[in-house]
């Protein structure tokens, strides 16, 4: 489901070719002579198994017998390592859809939660929806402060000062909600968004933006200009798929063709059972136009519309979001254009 011709590589290619993502060390750097490095001299202790009969044997013998990790545990660790890819500076993720009710906010919270829970750095999600966005309500109990309060703060030079305006989910994802008054929320402009990102980029490594459904809203110009990657969310339904395709067309026609080619399409199932459209053709279409396509299965917990808690997700759903996070993280090592201020 990955497009090898589009911009970026898949997370599996990233973990298989880790050395290609970093520059060669300077010629004057002191390196150990051949034959005297860790790979040839050290006989490392094998990683202990984490569960099952392998863990039982390891613990009952005090570690003298170590069956090693199973293939499943090795794959899981590779996935965690991919999500923890080194990150230069900050990385901005725009989550958007032209159609409401397709799981855009849910995707923002779940993806941000996986990054915050798996990585050690700071992750924040911003609600840029002008129409009573629900990001704060889906992530944690909403805090009274909003993005407007952050913009009017007298001093945001230190993290504790910014943290006073955010709320934190159980996953460690921080969120900052939009105004609940539609009249005030509509006044949130492109300049306001750029100022918010300018504040947050000094304190957070991964910044997610839960966008509104309108491409012509003034804020979207700033969102698209500052984004490193676009997550385009749709449902496995004809109208949602057509809206997603139209979004890619609009991006290409308005100077964002590189962002469209590097986008990741998320097909989020909103009902149990098999989809009524041809998923193979859907996947083929978007794979030819974007970097990757990811399928998120239906999940009863997400369908509640309440606070998203990662530990309440079905294992298949959580794994799907982890794969999505690894796909996004495969782009962390690339050089990106950021705001000029």
Question: What would you say this structure looks like, in words?
Answer:
The chain has an eight-stranded mixed sheet, with helices on both faces. The chain has helices at residues 11-16, 38-41, 52-60, 71-83, 104-118, 135-139, 147-151, 159-163, 182-185, 190-200, 218-226, 238-253, 257-261, 279-287, 300-303, 315-329, and strands spanning 91-96, 123-128, 167-168, 174-176, 206-211, 229-234, 264-268, 292-296. With 341 residues, it is α/β, with parallel strands linked by helices. The model is unreliable at 4-9 and 18-25 (pLDDT under 50). It is globular and about 65 Å long. The protein has 16 helices and eight strands. It has a single domain, classed as P-loop containing nucleotide triphosphate hydrolases (Rossmann fold), CATH 3.40.50. Residues 1-20 have a biased composition (Polar residues).
Q: Which helices and strands occur, and which strands form pairs?
A:
Elements: H1 11-16, H2 38-41, H3 52-60, H4 71-83, E1 91-96, H5 104-118, E2 123-128, H6 135-139, H7 147-151, H8 159-163, E3 167-168, E4 174-176, H9 182-185, H10 190-200, E5 206-211, H11 218-226, E6 229-234, H12 238-253, H13 257-261, E7 264-268, H14 279-287, E8 292-296, H15 300-303, H16 315-329
Parallel strand pairs: 1-5, 1-6, 2-4, 2-5, 6-7, 7-8
Antiparallel strand pairs: 3-4
């Amino acid at each position: 489901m990955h497009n090898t011709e589009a911009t970026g590589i898949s997370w599996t290619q990233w973990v298989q070719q880790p050395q290609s993502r970093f520059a060669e060390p300077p010629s004057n750097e002191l390196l150990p002579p051949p034959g005297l490095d860790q790979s040839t001299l050290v006989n490392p202790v094998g990683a202990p198994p984490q569960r099952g009969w392998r863990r039982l044997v390891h613990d009952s013998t005090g570690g003298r017998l170590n069956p090693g990790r199973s293939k499943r545990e090795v794959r899981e660790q590779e996935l965690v390592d991919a999500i923890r890819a080194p990150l230069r500076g900050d990385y901005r993720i725009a989550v958007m859809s032209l159609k409401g009710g397709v799981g855009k906010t849910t995707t923002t919270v779940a993806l941000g939660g996986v990054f915050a829970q798996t990585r050690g750095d700071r992750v924040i999600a911003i609600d840029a929806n002008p129409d009573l966005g629900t990001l704060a309500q889906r992530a944690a109990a909403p805090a009274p402060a909003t993005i407007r309060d952050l913009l009017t703060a007298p001093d945001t030079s230190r993290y504790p000062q910014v943290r006073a305006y955010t709320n934190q989910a159980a996953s460690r994802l921080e969120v900052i909600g939009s105004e609940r008054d539609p009249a005030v929320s509509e006044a949130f402009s492109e300049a306001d968004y750029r100022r918010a990102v300018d504040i947050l980029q000094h304190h957070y490594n991964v910044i997610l933006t839960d966008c509104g459904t309108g491409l012509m809203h003034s804020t979207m110009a700033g969102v698209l200009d500052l984004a490193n990657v676009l997550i385009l969310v749709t449902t496995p339904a004809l109208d949602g798929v057509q809206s997603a395709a139209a979004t890619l067309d609009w991006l290409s026609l308005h100077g964002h063709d590189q962002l469209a080619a590097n986008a990741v399409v998320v097909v989020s199932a909103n009902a149990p059972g098999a989809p009524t459209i041809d998923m193979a053709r859907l996947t083929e279409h978007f794979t030819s136009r974007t970097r990757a396509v990811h399928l998120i299965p239906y999940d009863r917990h997400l369908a509640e519309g309440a606070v998203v808690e990662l530990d309440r997700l079905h294992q298949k759903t959580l794994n799907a979001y982890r794969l999505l996070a690894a796909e996004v993280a495969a782009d962390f090592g690339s050089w990106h254009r950021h705001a000029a201020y």
